[in-house]
Amino acid sequence: MSVKSSTPGHFRKRDVFVEVDHGMARLNRKEAADFLGFAPATLANWALKGYGPSSFKVGGRRFYWLADLERFVANGSS
Predict the structure, then answer these.
(1) Cβ distance 10 to 19 under 8 Å?
(2) Torsion of CA 43, 19, 71, 66, to 10 degrees
(3) Which pLDDT score is estimated for 25?
(4) With contact defined as beta carbons under 8 Å apart, do 20 and 11 qualify?
(5) Does residue 14 have a pLDDT over 90?
(6) Is 68 helix (H, G, I), strand (E, B) or coil?
(7) Which residue has the higher pLDDT, 14 or 4?
(8) SS3 3
(9) To which H or E segment does residue 14 belong?
(10) Average pLDDT, the chain
């Protein structure tokens, strides 16, 4: 996953560092779970309970903005 950006950043994905644009990187539930260090089912349960990082649906699939995941971690919510 690589997104062209004027302000690139990096996050770890399965022992590989990936360059992304922090404002526009869209991760699916599995990628978000890997980033946070939880199982995808945990994120699914959180979404049902109204907890966890904000997410949105596209075509029936749930996605997360990388900036929202980073904010969630920075706030000590994980």
Answers:
(1) yes
(2) -40
(3) 87
(4) yes
(5) no
(6) helix
(7) 14
(8) coil
(9) none
(10) 78
Report the C-alpha gap between 38 and 78 in whole angstroms: 9
Q: For 39-53, what is each residue's pLDDT tens digit?
A: 999 999 999 999 999
The pLDDT value given to residue 6: 37
Q: What is the 3-state secondary structure (H, E, C) of 20-66?
A: EECCCCEEEHHHHHHHHCCCHHHHHHHHHHCCCCCCEEECCEEEEEH
**Which neighbouring-strand residues pair with 63?**
28, 56
Token pair, residue 52, equals 């966890």
How many other β-carbons are positioned within 10 Å of the β-carbon of residue 63?
15
Mean pLDDT, residues 49-74: 92
d(C-alpha 78, C-alpha 58), whole Å: 24
Q: Which of 40, 31, 39, 26 lies closest to 12, judged by CA? A: 31
What is the phi/psi pair of residue 64, to 5°?
A: -135, 140
